[in-house]
Design a protein that fits this description.
heterodimer, A: alpha+beta, nine-stranded mixed β-sheet, six-stranded mixed β-sheet, B: 560 residues, seven-stranded antiparallel β-sheet, five-stranded antiparallel β-sheet
Chain lengths: 684, 560
């Protein structure tokens, strides 16, 4: 680090806003700027947000970027014209998939699948075949590869080719050779091979991952190159990192080589921030609770580590990439409330930013969660978004009366509270699901609330689930970008194994791990990490023979198979309530490379004299869910609260971009970092 | 029924969310703990929650036939056990086909749930899952039983847990009657874990809402189901329509078995009557009446409330008739193992309905769940394996769009196929081809979806089972669309032993081959009316050959 590079910046592109944050690594000072998202030209919103911060880019040590560009390319079908090369006789693996319809079409007997990302005319089979052990049954037909490539490129105009052969996770030689041939023949065409991207079993899932990689690669490369150039033009000479979906970040070169690793990175910054908070506050079991305008993301942090998954889904396409195990429900401030023959429903339709809620006065006619918040008194119509926008209370009122109140025979406050009740029930369902899957009691977790609407909803969730504490960080609406500032450089390697643990010698395992660690360390070196800051972690995914789902067990530097089996069985017992006699099988061998960076500094907030009265703005009526009635709430200005302040509910803490709502049976305390801690009030 | 005056539409929705979430949590627990790939990979299970009156109040996504059958099973099993004889912590096992509404391997576990505050029974939880072996006459799957006793050990409603303690004598009985005891006991444990999860959740729910409010909400949910279904039913054409089809054979003789159905929509009732169908068969294609009910519920729900959470109120307007002792109403000791009758039967009901509303119904799909299984000894482990896969078929063209290609049959459409890399690792089959079959989709203004072509070579000796019941009658078309060739199994193709079979257990030797051709869906409307651009695209994609484009669709050579 150069002496004058004392700042870090992170930029997070969300659905409605781009958040840019700057952190002073010396003082811990932290600034946030927002600019509207520009979906057509995403780099423009990024530039706007950076410009608003007016940071001297030459002072940046690191620029960290979270982008959902790859995701959007798939959602909007704007990716490259992509072709597939597979084994002869298996042309339709990608189109057939697993043969199922999505769960929510269970009773739809005229299901119409969406247009596939790759048309059948752009899928070619070539001769070659391995068996389940990776033994060659038929050699690669190299002329067949050339002919297939010629057809795809010259007749079908493909810009990217995904190669996936059966059992290539056992031996990638055929895939590698086919790629070599095509790259020599058509250097301008991007080639993705499955054994590079996801060296794991199951042909459809591996093909799908490879196709998504090929599909987004060209657009992703262009975007990163353009942004790099713009940053350099502004004097930036630090490191440019891109967020990964499953933790950490990677250099732009690594990201361009493996863009699928970024597609689900949208919520990742918040999860990294949550893990950091778990350590900082010594709250090792956290539920991160991120509520934005259109969706709500829940993720579990156990022992200060986010729960991860090795498989995700994008538009019903499976993706074999490590991700945080995030549950999303389509419910946020813009979600529309409606009735179905006497029952109240919320979402999944959203009014989005345009036309938006009724109270925005932009033509929205259907009541939303935000309209309900306004009626319930949680939103100050004159201070919304720091006073940049005035809200129309009367219109929201008559909308809720007409669409909900009249239909259900409820007065307008009861109808608005009902909208929250329904939203809350769905939210609690999602939060419970993540804890139940881990066999954990949600009451033993703290809830970390962020995103614009998180601090409003989280205290209600906590009451409902018996969660003892809600933590609201500084600037909750920019927390996801803040979390990115702490991202380490990470890379992941996986190999499907499928041998029995008893059949593999400790030496065998050691040499397999060592080979994968060498790959991981080489990649860290390529990404500018010195040996002193490089670390690797070993994991085995183990399961009882015959099971599908595996448990991940950390492996130490000395391999002890009996100990591994014992750890696995304890974990199985804890998670599922039973252990068994059956043999244990190794599903995947995993290595994670870590380039440990400097942790961001967290500043303590200055103490202040007197009590929280200094921060009191006014009192206004709002709906108390404990009393189930409109009640006077004291409203405080967050900027003027200080450590050790204590406030009994009902109360609200307003900070312009979000509001923390404390119900009458809850209380609030401010800790030394200025975080708000909401807990149940002691019973009188 | 509790008074509903004190409960609002928001609270009812909240209660419904909690109940549905409880079912989903049970599902998550089952999937994560199951041992049997048919449960965890193929999702061959059904999870549902009932109130004290044994009316359905919530379910989790699963096999639609299983879900509908649970309703019948809960009542029959509780009638056998007696509600007065159950206690908190009890779990009851049932697989007696005529009560449990399925063949013997689709076992249900049923748990009564008691309100901790007053000790009163207020709900039931039910999980049905396919068990791998309960000691039937043959390993894997039974294709030619002639009475129930050849289909495995039977539990009419037997407590495997009493007051939270496992009944080890019964569990031993299961273990010693199964060829795959580890899998079966593992799945039993998984089902128990899921039931315990559901029980804890229901305890929390009843504490949170209290019994009176919970009862009022449930009553409103039922009433809502009944009202919305009645409204949808009133919008359907009124009248009576009859359709018939065959299933290939009963597994003993090669004679086709007649099926007939009459659907009558009248006076707010949707009646399905199977009069005219064959008498009970000697072989195991008979349907327990509860299975027949479940099949009819699936059709009825898809027409009247496909996008609403399920509850018993939604099926109150459904009446199903089948004489005891006939194909659709098996009575003891009729064999019932090969339940494929329900798969073909589901589309038979569609066929009757298509006469009533050709503007709303799709043509027939490939009409079956073409299943296959290999049983053998794995050379790597020396252990027996019995691994199956269900192949996809083409779906029928609809009045608005082409049928989907290569999907699992309508009757279990969220079920997934087994990956080739899993099949080849766990068995000694080498799959030499698995591709869409060009020209297999029924021609029409809207084209039926394509079926699959699969070639298998066996690398060791073993047994190969095919299970399908629609290889003799073609999938039907609508409004001038074209029918398609039915499903086809060719054993030992290109050899002197070559022959076509449907449901069959065949000894195979290393080097033998089979070919499976699954049927495409029927077409909708006159092929001559098909958009010319779509005809050209179908040729470019390889869905339709250039030859068929000319001869069937009347495309000029220039179009290609």
């Amino acid at each position: 680090m150069a002496a004058d590079q004392d700042l870090r910046m992170a930029v997070d592109i969300g659905g409605t806003f781009v958040d840019a944050v700057e952190l002073d690594m010396t003082t811990g000072a932290f600034r946030l700027a927002k600019a509207p998202t520009t979906p057509g030209e995403p780099w423009r919103g990024v530039s706007d947000a950076i410009a608003k911060l007016a940071t001297d880019l030459a002072r940046l040590e690191v620029f960290i970027h979270g982008t959902t560009l790859g995701l959007n390319a798939v959602l909007e079908r704007r990716g490259a014209v992509t072709g597939i090369i597979t084994n002869d006789g298996f042309r339709d693996i990608f189109l057939i998939g697993r043969g199922n319809v999505p769960d929510d079409h269970m009773y739809d007997f005229q299901y119409e699948p969406p247009e596939p990302l790759v048309k059948r005319r752009r899928i070619a089979g070539v001769g070659c075949r391995l068996d389940y052990k990776g033994r060659e049954l038929e050699p690669l037909d190299e002329n067949g590869v050339r002919a297939a490539a010629r057809h795809l490129v010259e007749e079908q105009g493909v810009e990217a080719i995904a190669i996936c052969f059966l059992f290539s996770f056992r031996d990638p030689a055929h895939e590698q050779r086919a790629a070599e041939i095509i790259r020599a023949q058509y250097p301008e065409v991007k080639v993705s091979i499955s054994s590079d991207i996801a060296r794991e079993h199951r042909e459809y899932e591996r093909t799908s991952t490879t196709v998504l990689d090929a599909y987004i690669r060209p657009i992703f490369e262009r975007y990163i190159d353009r942004l790099s150039e713009a940053l350099s033009d502004g004097g930036f000479a630090g490191r440019f990192l891109v967020m990964r979906s499953g933790g950490g970040a990677m250099t732009t070169a690594a990201a361009k080589a493996s863009p699928t690793q970024t597609v689900l990175s949208g919520p990742a910054g918040g999860i990294i921030g949550a893990a950091f908070m778990a350590d900082l506050l010594d709250r090792h079991d956290l539920i991160s609770f991120d509520v934005g305008g259109t969706s709500l993301d829940v993720c579990l942090i156990e022992n200060a580590q986010p729960v991860t998954a090795h498989e995700a889904e994008l538009e019903h396409y499976p993706l074999l990439i490590p991700t945080y195990d995030i549950r999303t429900i389509g419910a946020g401030g813009g979600s529309i409330a409606w009735t179905d023959e006497g029952l109240l429903k919320v979402g999944p339709q959203s009014a989005g930013a345009e036309p938006g809620p009724i109270c925005y006065g932009r033509g929205g006619e259907r009541p939303t969660v935000t309209d309900a918040a306004l009626i319930l008194g949680y939103v100050d119509p004159d201070r919304f978004l720091e006073g940049q926008m005035t809200l129309d209370v009367a219109a929201a009122r008559s909308g809720i009366e007409r669409w909900i109140g009249a239909e259900l025979g409820m007065n307008v406050e009861a109808a608005a509270a009902g909208i929250y009740d329904v939203l809350l029930a769905r939210t609690v369902g999602a939060a419970r699901q993540v804890t139940v899957e881990r066999s954990r009691d949600p009451a033993t977790f703290s809830l970390l609330a962020f995103g614009g609407a998180g601090p409003l909803l989280a205290p209600l969730v906590a009451r409902d689930m018996g969660i003892r504490e809600v933590i609201v960080p500084i600037v909750p609406s920019g927390f996801s970008a803040w979390g990115m500032l702490g991202a380490d450089i990470v890379n992941d390697y996986a190999r499907t194994d499928l041998r029995l643990l008893d059949d593999v010698s400790a030496d065998d395992l050691e040499s397999l791990f060592a080979a994968m660690e060498a790959d991981a360390r080489a990649s860290l070196t390529d990404q500018g990490i010195g040996a002193d800051n490089a670390a690797t972690e070993r994991q085995l995914e183990l399961r009882y023979m015959g099971q599908e789902h595996a448990l991940t067990v950390a492996v130490g530097s000395a391999i002890d198979r009996a100990a591994l089996r014992q750890v696995f069985e304890e974990l199985h017992e804890a998670r599922y309530g039973h252990a068994m006699e059956a043999p244990v099988q190794i599903l995947n061998v995993r290595v994670r490379g870590l380039g440990i960076g400097r942790s961001p500094t967290v500043a303590e907030v200055e103490r202040a004299d007197g009590g929280p009265e200094r921060a009191l703005i006014n009192q206004r009526p709002a709906y108390c869910f404990a009393r189930r009635a409109m009640t006077p709430f004291a409203v405080y200005d967050r900027a003027r609260l200080a450590p050790d302040d204590r406030i009994d509910g009902p109360a609200m803490v307003d900070e312009g971009t979000s509001v923390t709502v404390i119900q009458s049976d809850q209380r609030l305390e401010v800790n030394r970092y200025g975080h708000l801690l909401v807990t149940a009030a002691e019973r009188a | 029924m509790a008074a509903r005056t004190d409960i609002d539409g928001a609270t009812v929705e909240v209660v419904q969310s909690y109940l549905t979430a409880a079912a989903h949590e049970m599902r998550a627990t089952l999937i994560r703990t199951a041992f049997n790939p048919v449960i965890y990979e193929v999702l061959d299970f059904g999870i549902s929650i009932y109130d004290a009156a044994m009316d359905l109040i919530a379910e989790a996504p699963g096999l639609t036939f299983f879900l509908g059958a649970n309703d019948y099973s809960v009542r029959k099993v509780m009638a056998h056990v007696g509600p007065e004889n159950v206690e908190p912590g009890d779990i009851i096992l049932s697989n007696y086909p005529y009560w449990n509404a399925a063949h013997t391997y689709d076992a249900t576990l049923l748990a009564p749930v008691f309100d901790p505050s007053d000790g009163r029974l207020f709900a039931y939880l039910c999980i049905r899952a396919h068990w791998m072996d309960l000691g039937a006459k043959d390993p894997g799957y039974v294709l030619d039983s002639t009475d129930m006793h050849q289909e495995g050990v039977v539990f009419p409603g037997t407590k495997v847990f009493r007051r939270g303690q496992s009944n080890d004598e019964i569990i031993d009985l299961i273990r010693f009657n199964s060829r795959m005891p580890d899998l079966v006991i593992g799945d039993l444990n998984a089902q128990v874990a899921a039931l315990r999860t559901g029980e804890r959740r229901l305890h929390e729910i009843v504490a949170k809402f209290t019994r009176p409010r919970l009862d009022a909400a449930i009553a409103t949910i039922m009433d809502h189901g009944e009202r919305t279904t009645a409204a949808a039913l009133a919008n359907l054409p009124q009248g009576s329509w009859t359709a018939s089809d065959i299933i290939d054979d009963d597994g003993i003789s090669d004679d086709p078995v007649a099926m007939q159905v009459t659907v009558t929509i009248e006076g707010g009732v949707f009646e399905v009557d199977f009069a005219g169908s064959a008498a009970a068969t000697r072989g195991p294609v008979n349907m327990p009446f509860g299975s027949t009910l479940a099949m009819c519920k699936v059709v009825f729900k898809s027409l009247t409330s496909p996008n609403r959470p399920s509850n018993a109120g939604q099926t109150r307007a459904l009446k199903v008739k089948a004489e005891p002792g006939t194909l659709f109403h098996a009575v003891y000791p009729a064999p019932t193992f090969t339940l494929w009758t329900g798969i073909v039967g589901l589309e038979l009901i569609h066929k009757a309905l298509a006469q009533a509303m050709p503007d709303r119904m799709a043509a027939s799909s490939g009409g079956d769940v073409p299943g296959f299984m290999m049983i053998g000894t794995h050379p790597d482990t020396g252990q027996m394996f019995a691994i199956s896969n269900n192949d996809p078929v083409g779906w029928g063209a609809t009045p608005r769009h082409d049928g989907a290609s290569a999907l699992i049959h309508l009757s279990e459409s969220i079920v997934r196929n087994t990956p080739l890399e899993v099949l080849e690792t766990k068995t000694t089959m080498l799959i030499e081809r698995a591709e869409l079959r060009p020209d297999s989709g029924g021609a029409g203004q809207y084209r039926g979806g394509l079926g699959l072509h699969r070639d298998i070579r066996f690398l060791t000796d073993g047994e190969f089972l095919t299970v399908m019941k629609k290889t003799k009658s073609p999938p039907w078309a609508l409004e001038g669309g074209r029918e398609t060739d039915p499903n086809t199994v060719i054993l030992f193709p290109g050899t002197a032993r070559e022959r076509r079979v449907s449901t069959k257990r065949t000894a195979v030797a290393a080097g033998d081959r089979v070919t499976l051709l699954t049927a495409g869906g029927g077409g909708y409307g006159d092929p001559a009316k098909r958009d010319r651009q779509r005809v050209r695209e179908d040729v470019a994609e390889g869905y339709v050959s250039a030859d068929a484009a000319r001869t069937v669709y009347g495309a000029s050579p220039d179009d290609g």
